[in-house]
Amino acid sequence: MDPILIKDVREPGSYTLDFYTKRGGYSALKKALAMTPDAVIEAVKQSGLRGRGGAGFPTGLKWQFVDKKSPQPKYICCNADESEPGTFKDHVLMERNPHLLFEGCLIGCHAIGAKVAYIYIRGEFFHVQQVLEAELQKAREAGYVGKNIFGTGFDCEIYLHRGAGAYEAGEETALIESLEGKRAQPRLKPPFPAVAGLYGCPTAVNNVETLCNVPLIIEHGAEWFAKIGPEKNGGPKLFCISGHVKRPGTFEASMDVTLRDLIYDERFGGGIRGGHALKAVIPGGSSVPVLLPNEIDVPASFDGIAKAGSLLGSAGIIVMDETTCMVWAAENLLHFYKHESCGKCTPCREGCDWLHRMLRKIERGEGQARDVDLLLSVANNILGKTLCAFGDAAATPVLSTIKTFRDEYEAHIREGRCTVPAPWRASAPMAAAH
Amino acid sequence: MSFHPSMDYGRGHHRSARALPDEGPAFVYTAERRATLDEILGHYPPDQRKSAILAALYLVQAQQGYITHNGMRHVAEVIGCTSAEVEDVVSFYTMFYTRPVGRHVIQVCRTLSCALMGAERVSEEIASALGIQPGETDAAGEFTLHEVECLGACDRAPVIAVNDDWHECQRPEDIRALIDGLRARGAAALTGCHLKVEK
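^ inputs. structure came back:
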């Protein structure tokens, strides 16, 4: 398929209101406002749009669950805290096509009866925030955001909320906590945000790319959308390809495309750099199991990758060639999880630290034979024992690399050194835990 | 205190170890920053002023470079919460500094995609060029070096952020020029985000 979401992002001025409206921008909003909220939700349900943040939950259902009869205000929280390692797709949409996101937010607000949408953007995206803020102001001045939009009596405001460096804020209830001015720590569910979210009010938390798909559904119809890609995995999808490929970047395709094509095809990743061979792929951001070169001939869809034993997650495809030490890769990721654990649940807060230190020990050649099983034991004691999915995400790199590369762990321990050193790694071990 | 036999927990790195913030000089927002904060407070329901804490703290940091205890007290006063609630937030988020930092805060992304492309070497090179370790500030107060987790620019790895600006696709051999460039031209020495095609 030809790109839709990021079709024009390389054009100068693609982020401006003028550029957007000249290409039919905000016409989907006009169309949606002429529909009843229920009809909008029905269209999104029919389209089969699944959340692009990682979980792949049907967006229409999420909106339907929002308690519309509640006397309290409703909210849309747009999750723009893109922090999953290997993921950089929302960044492109926000910086180069921000009005598509605003339009999606506004249609979402109409659908669930909200008057305010908050875009929670990660603090490190400062330059993106500047674009969003300026364009939001232009949309406000042009009457697309604010009071009485298109003279329909629909009032809706969009505000940006800047985060301050916390991966956990990408979890929907932690995002809400952070929006309320607290530490970004997850809440016990239920109640789900649809019932008691921001300020205890019914709330829908949607990813940037998810909301950007909504205007397309309204514009072209649910059927058109569902037909792009395999059944139950419809619509255009952004894939982020990073690591040892020739052409890292964000690419748009339908979910028919195979993982192999995304890595090797000239239109996408362009193959492994420097004549090296593929060793392993993490297909959905750092939190999902690794796949081996013989497991990548599957559609890069939610269901396709699940069948292969991993998850599409945030579609952050991290490619590793044969120069990569898998113990080192697991250590790198556990440093991330250890650093980002919010500290609320003991198994995760303590377990991530233990895992990281054991991995570092093995990687430096100081491991003992019992350590691999000890790693499995600690990881399994995090898995499923935390309030949010972070715990499972942190255990996964350990469990999955031991499952597929146990011999490499054992070789490190046996030989008392890293058996896959690479020239691109630090000459001295990276700075101590901090 | 951990009960796991092989872990030397509790000796110097227990996470509950609370570092008290610097008292710092008396702090009040400039009129302009106070007006900005009042405008941001308007984004939230009147009974939810706490929502503006992150924004309020950014303004403190913009005004005096880092966040002091007096800064936190002032935020608490303006927001209408306790200073403990403010410190709770400050100590959680990595982008708030509770100690003075250099004029250029160099943040090297260390997470997997960048590490695969040589971020460890880049960090080493910066450390040796500046004569400081990650987490430290040089004697002149010019540079602070931090290794940070994923910045969300994995296709332009290894990526560095200097204060709020990005600097993409760095190789170890580029680092000396970067440091010299920052000294001479400040943020103008940085590549910025590649998506901005208009520059």
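Chain B has two domains: 1-100, 104-189. Residues 53-64 of chain B form the longest helix (12 residues).
thumbs up if we can close this ticket
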